[in-house]
Each structure stands twice: as C-alpha cells, then as structure tokens.
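I would like you to help me understand the sequence and structure tokens below and explain how sequence relates to structure.
___
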Amino acid sequence: MTLFATVALALALAFAYAAQLARWLRVLQREHYEPRSMTRFLGRWSAPPVAGASTSSARAGRRGLTVSHLLVAVAVVAALVHANVVVDLATVSYGLFCPVGLSIRGRTGPLRFTPRLRVVAASAIVVALAVSALGPLGTNPFLGAVVMVWAVPPVLDGLARLLAPVERRRAQHFVDLARRRLEVVRPVVVAITGSYGKTSTKNYLAQLLTADGAVVASPRSFNNRAGLSRAVNENLVDGTRVFIAEMGTYGPGEIRDLTEWLPPDIAVVTAIGPVHLERMGSLEVIEAAKREITERAKTIVLNVDDVRLRSWVEELRNHGHRVVTAAARGSGDVRVEVADGSWTLWVGDDQIGTGTMVVGVHATNLACAAAASLELGVSSAAVVERLSAVTPSASRLSVARAPSGVVVVDDTFNANPDSARAALAVLGTLDVTGRRVVVTPGMVELGALQYAENVRLAERIRATPADLVVVGRTNALPLSEGSPSPVMRFDRRDQAVAWVKKNLRDGDAVLYLNDLPDHYP
C-alpha cells in the first residue's frame, strides 16, 4: 500500500470513528448517560422488524436485513481471508453511514457539549487512540482503529458506568448548595412521583396554589438529582412558601437519594405502571422505587384508582403516616367525579361544588392536586373556585382547532397504555363530522409487554373508530398487526404532519399520540 493510500485510509477511519462517536454520544445524552443504553439502542437500529412480517417470525427473533448487517458480513468474511483493505473499507462505510437513519446532528435533540459530555467524549478518544496504537501488532496495521469504529456503543456504555461516580461527585457541589438554600428559605415541599401523571399533577397543583402566591414548581421535567438541585438553586427565592418537586426514577435508590436532601412534607403518588419497564425489569421493582418517596413524608396523597397504590394505604397508616386518598371513581377522601362534561368535588361524604370540566384535564390527577392543596391549607371553597380554571399541561392531551378547521389533540408527551386510552376517549367524544386520525409511533420502554400493548393500542384505535398513521419503525409491526390496514407509514413525524395538513379538512380531527425522539428508529 502506498504512503498516500495509507494516509487516506487512516484519515477515513478517523472520520468514521468521529461520525460514530457523534451519533452515539447524542444517544447517550438523550438516554441520560444510563449504562447499557447504547448496546440496547444498537440492537434497535441494527435489527428493525420487517414491516409485514408474521407475528410468529417477529417473536422468534427473525428480523430484516439492514445495511449494517451487510457491512458486518463483508467485514467478517474479508477478515477470514485476510483481505485487510476490504475490512478497512467496510469499516469506513459503516462508521460514516450506519446505522442508516441515525442522524449525526439530530433533528429533535442535537448534541449539547455539556461538561459531562466533554469528559465522556475525551475519555472515548483516549481509549480509541490507545487501542488504535495496538494495530501494528496484528496483520492489519489498522486493526485497532477498525475495532474502535465498531465498538463505539459498548465503549460508551462502559465509560458511562466508569465515570458515573466522578459525575456524582461533581454534581454534589450543586446538591449541597440546594440543601443550604432549602434550609434558609424553608418552604413546604410537595414531592410528586408516579409512573405517569406526575407532571400534569404538578402543574395542576401549581395552578391551584398560585393565587396565594410564593409557589415554585420544578420546571419542565427537571425531576432528577441534577435537575432538582438546579431548580432549587435558580428558582427558590426568599419568601417562597411552597416548592413543588417532580421526582422521577430509572431505578431503586434514586428517589430515596432525592428525599435525603429534599425531604417532602407532602408526598403525592399518581400511578404505578409499566413505564420504564424495560429498564427496571418488573412492576414490583417500579413500585418499590416509587414507594421510596413515602419514607420521609409526613403526609402522603395516593391515587386509589390505582389498585397497587390502594394496597399501600393501610400499611402506611399503620406506620404512622397521614394518608389522604384521592380518586375519580369509587371511594377516596377527595374525589373529582366527572359526568356529562362537568366535575363534582367531594371531600369525604360532602359534595363541595361542581363546574365545567376542561377537555384534556385528567380527573384523577386533578383529584390528587386538589387533595394536596387542601392539605396545604387552601379552603375547599377556594379549591372549587380554582378547579374550573385548571388547564391541561402542554403536549398532554391539549385540544385546539387549527386554522384549517381540523381539531388537533396533542398528546405527544405521553407514552403509556393508560394515557393512550384516555386520549382515544377524548378523540372519540369530539364533536366532529369528518374522519378521525391517530398519528403515533406507538409506546416504548414497556419491556416484554411492548409488543402486545402496541397491538392492543392499534386495536383500540380501530375501535374508536379512527384511521391509523404509523411513524417510525420501532413499533410498525405490532401496530400493523393490530390495525391490518394503516392509512400510511412514515419514517419521521414531520412527514406525517405534512400528510395530515394535506389530507385533513374542516370537520376532521387528528390525535398526535406520543412523539419519539429521533434516536429511536
């Protein structure tokens, strides 16, 4: 090989590695630096299901061939016959272009060069240089570089795990600042968790309390250690009366850690369900992780429409906690019952008041918020007055009419079976004269339940009745099984939106159900 060819190949491999690193660093950042997430997503991108394949073949693991598969086969065969240049060229092609569809720059979430990302990226480059230096020891002078191009996802998984304690120590400074700020301001802390419904409940509660002033809620989905410490440090001003903290978790111990420095006076648990089941493994693990929020709380508000939460009540009371139950049906200390477009607030056996229900407001979450506001000293009369002014959270079952006259239901933030059922119920009851359409990529992170739940989702869409437009490849197979004749299938949501704008008219309605970021296939 000539010197020019050698240099050109070395540069090509360097660019291929850089392209892979940029792709997978973005995925790692979107997945909150969780170890194992890169390997999991590599599987998703390398082996998407074949649209139209049989159910039995999909469940047996038979998948469609991709460009990644082809290049892997070429590289392996070439390595066996010692065709080093072919191995190198196949590696360059893979690094620059694969997985096909996984963007380097990103449409829905570009790479953000935070301090944490820079540390991970620098560490990955150091590892790549060290391994590449071993290449001349083999028959292929570029063997080390070849290995590193293919190995970016597992290497990033390893670095995420290795560097997690470093990041935790770095973030501890901000946690300590937040702890001191809380000790100075001394607000009443309301902590809210749940598999779903926590953001809506947080926003409903903030609306019920705002008239009394001095209320701060954690912004957007700042619901982990870094986000909540930042919310406290940046937003908790002197005189803050109530701080509402949304608390999320990807595994056991995380909420317990949050409540150690952010102990709740009132804890609210909205639901237990299969969200993040892929990460946590079982509903029992999810339930135990959510229950950590009760350990330091003086008062606990539970949604007893949820059968798992209903089972907590007696035990928590036996351990000395004050437990307030909330519900939209059946029994509960505080209930928001909905009928014929109106809500009725009950406290115990007393009917407190009624009002008009805003479309998109979730009754159970509203009951949880009402119960928490009553515990915070808001009068029942004030709660009744404010309930009718509560509005849906952004992108959570909000309803609006487009200039074209099409009714648009935006539920792009939600992605679980219960919220999907609620959204389809809203779509089915809209006063429209034309067609109803659901645009969705389906639901993810449901572990072993994901296939069956997406089949059921498509069946419910068909029964609404509504036309189904499938976005992406992630759940294309189960959605197509549940609705054998989807209207259209698009790779990206913007393509589906363009189709909706072109084909729907005044009198039609569209539900945008879930919106996967573009690091999903």
Remarks:
- The chain has a mean pLDDT of 90.
- Residues 152-185 form the longest helix (34 residues).
